[in-house]
Amino acid sequence: MKRNALYYFYIIALLYVIGAVFDGVAIYNHSKGYTKDKSGYVEILNFEDRLLNVEEWMFTGSGWDSKESTSTEKLKGSEAHYATAVISSYYFIASSAAFILMVLFIYWGGSNVFKAVGLSVITIAIACLIIGIITPMLEIEAFSTNLTIPLKFTLPFIGNVDIPDKVFEGRMYYYYQSKSVVDLVYVLLESKNYVVAVSIFGFSVLVPFTKLTLSVLLLLNSSFRDNSLVKKIVGRIGKWSMADVFVAATFLSYLSFSNMNSGIDTEANTLVGLYFFLAYCILSIASSQLIELTIKKDKEITHQS
Question: Is residue 125 very low, low, confident or very high in pLDDT (cuts 50, 70, 90)?
């Protein structure tokens, strides 16, 4: 077996891409299914519908009983979708690890080992980036649990009238959002926030794909490797990619403080998309190191010849 020939890599990469497409579609569909069912769950428990519902105000509890059964069904459906998305993510991780190990097994000891592994890492990074930007990253929700409304008032000539407080059992939602990067850009464009939309699209989509494209060219085209400007651009973009994750972490930290609001609970949960985008960032940095090793290896071979 000629361990320096890359056509073995291309065959393995094609098989990996086919599997990644199936896993990616499953992750996307079930992530969207989760968001759809969770939104349906929140809609049923929306504060406007509950507060304006006459049956809910009746002390018989019939209004809440019907909502509880319907909302529970929606919640279970969303949880099932998310569990399936997580399982598909594990399949993706397993196939990615197998891809890297197979490439290492074939090219270990050959002159193209760093190049083949680098291309493998970039291939996985592209898959992670695509999944990361099209699937929801975060969900934000604000709600009250067992909201209690005191029903005490004063009547002329009668005085204070005490009626048992009305308790709206379970959760009452005031706000819920769960969007991917692509969804967010689309919403911003619809609301004519063009500057913010273009900025998010540029740093989260355009810049990462540009970095990966240049990385592939650096590995496959020797003329690009001699271009110091291209190498600097790739290195700097790799550092900027981590800025997005830092912003997301800061955003979550800010939201955690909003839980201090009296009577209203606020939650921010990370979803599958954020982990895939984080994986892209890590793989992007790893690919930069592999590019440097590839360039160093090629120089050694050139000097020896």
Answer: very high
